[in-house]
Amino acid sequence: MSVHQKEKSMQNPIFNNLFEHWSALRQHSDVPNRCEIDPRVFPDALENTFIFERIAEGDFRARLAGMNLCEMMGMEVRGQSAASFMQNAERTRIQKVLEQILTRPAIGELTLTGRDLSGAEVEVSMILLPLRSDMGEVNRVIGCISFPHKPFTAPLRFLIKNQKLTPLSAIGNSAEEIAIGFSEKIEPFRPQGFRAVSENDNPVVSPRPQGHLKLVPDEDDS
Predict the structure, then answer these.
(1) Is residue 31 classed as helix, strand or coil in its secondary structure?
(2) If pLDDT is split at 50, 70 and 90, which confidence band does 116 have?
C-alpha cells in the first residue's frame, strides 16, 4: 500500500484536509514548520483545530483554538494547559502522549470519552500532528477534535479511551499503517478561521448555525 493510500485511509472528513495538508508539507519524513500551515487549505476543520506548544517538558499550552474546543471546555482555551482539558486521572497521561508525539516524532490518534455537568457521556475523536517552530525545534502539536453529536452542558473533561501513535518513520513501511479509525462520518463545519471564547454564556451546547470566525494570530511563534 502506498503512502498516499495509507493517508487516505483516515476517513473522518474533518480530519482529512488538515492531515493531507500536513502530510504534503513533509519532506524526507521530516516535520513541517508551523509557519507553513495555511488555514485556507482546511476551512471546514478550523472550528475544530488547535495548536499546543511545549513550554517545558510535560507542559503544553494552547496557542490557537477553534470555537468548538472552546465551547466544549466552557472557557477561553488560548493559554490553557492541555492537561486542563482532561479529567484529573488523565492529566499526566495527555502530557506524556504529547511528549511522545514530539520526541518520536509520531502521529497521534485518540478516542476520548467525557461527562458533562449533568452526567451525560459523550465521545469524540482527536488527531495530533507534530510541528516545528521557526527556529527548527519540534515543539508544537497541531490537532483536530470532533464535536459531540448530542447536546451537552459545558464544561466537558475527558478520559483517553483509546490511543494510537504511529512514528513518522513507519509511514511508507508496508508492515505498519496509519490507523483507519475515525471512520464515522461527521458533517463538516463551514465557518472559517480560529476564534476563542472568553466565557460560556449558554452552557447548553447544541449543533449551531453557520457563522463567521476570525484568525487569531500566533503572536510569539519563535
Answers:
(1) coil
(2) confident
The burial of 195, by beta-carbon neighbours within 10 Å (0-12 exposed, 13-18 middle, 19 or more buried), is given as: buried
Give the residue-averaged pLDDT of 4-14. 53
What pTM does this model have? Answer: 0.74
Cβ atoms of 48 and 137 within 8 Å: the answer is no
Helix (H, G, I), strand (E, B) or coil at 110: strand
Alpha carbons within 13 A on the beta-carbon side of 12: 25
- For the stretch 185-209, pLDDT in tens is 333 333 334 443 333 343 434 344 3
Domains, the chain, ordered by start: 3-167 (3.30.450.20)
Q: For the chain, what is the radius of gyration of the CA atoms?
A: 16
For residue 136, count other CB atoms closer than 10 A to its CB. Answer: 9
